[in-house]
């Protein structure tokens, strides 16, 4: 009788373990499906859909001259999306005039929509920000922005496309 009870408990534990592992694998697969949303193109394909300035900024980590970008002075209400893949990056509510010469934002529209990595190019230590969907270079983030985040996302206009609020369109 005791052996049957132990065997029953063992089988129950094994069954529960199987379902826990299956559920964890299912979660991992669902999380992995987000990765399948990545946009991957060859250089030739990017050159077909981006203009030369966008290609230089987004694909070659270039930068536009300060005070020249299309969205530098824009005060329109709406959202800014990645010019390469359309991922929503920033909202106009977070845009501010930092005086740096590029559009500046205090925070992304969604923290998962802007990725960052160290950038030690040109003998400087900075933090590059890029689109996590297509890998396009956006600009840099600095810790001298306004409250509440204290961050300044300094973004190239060439890496953005502006979509006005619906109310404005009507």
Fold and architecture overview:
The protein is built from 4 helices and 9 strands; from the N terminus they run αααβββββββββα. It folds into 2 domains: 1-36; 43-169, Peptide methionine sulfoxide reductase (Metal Binding Protein, Guanine Nucleotide Exchange Factor, Chain A), CATH 2.170.150. A 6-stranded antiparallel beta sheet has the order 3-4-8-7-6-5. The protein is of the alpha+beta class and 170 residues long. The longest helix has 34 residues, at 2-35. It has helices at 2-35, 43-49, 52-60, 166-169; strands spanning 78-82, 88-91, 95-96, 104-105, 115-119, 126-130, 137-142, 152-155, 160-164.
Strand-helix topology:
Blueprint: H1 2-35, H2 43-49, H3 52-60, E1 78-82, E2 88-91, E3 95-96, E4 104-105, E5 115-119, E6 126-130, E7 137-142, E8 152-155, E9 160-164, H4 166-169
Antiparallel strand pairs: 1-2, 1-9, 3-4, 4-8, 5-6, 6-7, 7-8
Produce a short descriptive summary.
This protein has helices at residues 2-35, 43-49, 52-60, 166-169; strands at 78-82, 88-91, 95-96, 104-105, 115-119, 126-130, 137-142, 152-155, 160-164.
């Amino acid at each position: 009788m005791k052996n049957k009870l132990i065997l029953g408990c063992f089988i129950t534990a094994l069954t529960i373990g199987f379902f826990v592992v299956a559920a964890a694998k299912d979660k991992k697969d669902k999380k992995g499906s987000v990765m399948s949303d990545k946009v991957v193109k060859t250089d030739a394909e990017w050159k077909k859909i981006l203009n030369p300035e966008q290609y230089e900024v987004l694909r070659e980590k270039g930068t536009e001259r300060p005070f020249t970008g299309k969205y530098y002075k824009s005060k329109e209400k709406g959202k800014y999306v990645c010019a390469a893949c359309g991922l929503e990056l920033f909202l106009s509510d977070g845009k501010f005039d930092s005086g740096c010469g590029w559009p500046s934002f205090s925070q992304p529209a969604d923290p998962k929509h802007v990725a960052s990595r160290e950038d030690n190019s040109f003998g400087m230590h900075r933090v590059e920000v890029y689109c996590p969907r297509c890998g396009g270079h956006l600009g840099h983030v600095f810790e001298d922005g306004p409250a509440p985040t204290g961050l300044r996302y300094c973004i190239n206009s060439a890496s953005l496309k502006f979509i006005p609020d619906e109310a404005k369109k009507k």
